[in-house]
Amino acid sequence: MGEQAQKTLRLVLVPFPYQGHISPMLQLGAALHSKGFSITIAHTICNSPNSQNHPNFSFLRLSDGLSDTDIESRGLAANLLAINDNCKESFQWSLEQLIMEDRKTISCVISDELMYFAEDVANNLKILSIILRTTSAITSLARSFLLKLVEGGHVPLQGFASDELVARLPLLRFKDLPCPLTENFKSFAVIVARAYNKRTCSAIIWNTINCLEQSTLDQIQKESQVRIFAIGPMHKITPSISSSLIKEDRSCISWLDKQPHNSVVYVSISGSIASLYEKEVTEMAWGLANSKQAFLWAIRPGSIRGSDWIELLPNGFQDAVGDKGCIVSWAPQKEVLAHPAVGGFWSHCGWNSTLESLAQGVPMICKPCFGDQRVNARYASHVWKVGLELEEVERGEIARVVRRLILCEEGKEIRARAKKLKQKIDVSTRKGGSSYDSLNQLANFILSL
Ligand code: UDP
């Protein structure tokens, strides 16, 4: 079928309304648009993407029943369950309207794995569905394993702090399992069960790359009834699009321009969700100052508990670091990681941040908070060996790890490995590479449905 025919085919994409999920879904939309499909984004009212940044897409607003404060104040799990309960009716109604009014055929609903209501609606309307998994592939095996433990009544798990290796998950220790932030294993079990069990989709798209996760992807494909398409890193396979929910502060780029190559540690350890205690921030601040290395620190407003932004940074810290430090509220992260001055990324290891770092060949300091970040951190440091693990948020330990990465021979070796991995990732996204081919196969697959 030619491109003309594809233009009459509409794909409805349903992102989960958090930054780490919206970005890959919009990137996927751009990739499939470049293959000739019409793209509609069905989004919640909370955290809605800015439609002006995406003139090629059309948008459907779903009533999510959440107030502005809900999304901030309630936990992720509570929001997720509420969104799935509240949006179903609105989505079904919107699709029915679209089918009546539109001359294009809706060929498929592609929804985030956590927006399972969308798959139910697609089934009701006899539209095929595909899910997008925005985590690493190994995370899904780890979550399934954890779910079995939870279902077997093995919680609370004292062993969750243990260094013991999990037999069936290569190189993962019990303390690397993707546990939720709180001990609320009940909602975790409901969510993971819905995300992984009894899916009726026709295929699964994964924001990962064969060169990172070949054996895990092979294992998942072997056990899966449906096809898997690994087309990551999505930010590399798509024309660049702006998907940030928070305004980026680009002033840090001119500061970076003044720094020597590979000299700056970029610090962003709360991503778009996690938050830090004042005590941790104090240790971070003095650890960075004591390392005597230049740093760019992205501190999301509200991410330090008990303050709006950086009011709780320790007294004297900013004077002590002077021009060696630059603090912004939200960095243009991909641009920062591509900057030659950046010699390392101290990250919470959210999957997008991990992929963005790997794709730029930037070595990492890994300090996960919760969930899949723990798995990603372990893989970055011990499987791909492109990062150092930070065991404890303590000033002495921080200063040591920063200096090991930026100044020592060990850091040079890690950087060299990261650069090699970047080259492999580059190859994957170019013509003939695994992710490039997988995207084409996905487009053909959708056409064949
Ligand atoms: N990000 C950004 N500027 C910042 C911090 C984060 O643009 O100052 C982006 C980052 O590039 C990534 C996303 O926010 O794409 C965070 O997603 P990730 O999966 O790493 O973490 P999460 O927020 O889901 O924990």
From TrEMBL:
Recorded GO MF terms: quercetin 3-O-glucosyltransferase activity; quercetin 7-O-glucosyltransferase activity
Task: Determine the domain of life of the protein's source.
Answer: Eukaryota
**Keyword field contains Glycosyltransferase:** yes
**Which Pfam families does its entry note?**
UDPGT
Q: State the species of origin.
A: Morus notabilis
Instruction: Please name the SUPFAM superfamilies in this protein's record.
Output: UDP-Glycosyltransferase/glycogen phosphorylase
| UniProtKB keywords | Glycosyltransferase, Transferase
Family that this chain belongs to? Belongs to the UDP-glycosyltransferase family.
The organism's taxonomic lineage, starting at the top = Eukaryota, Viridiplantae, Streptophyta, Embryophyta, Tracheophyta
Q: What is this protein called?
A: UDP-glycosyltransferase 76E2
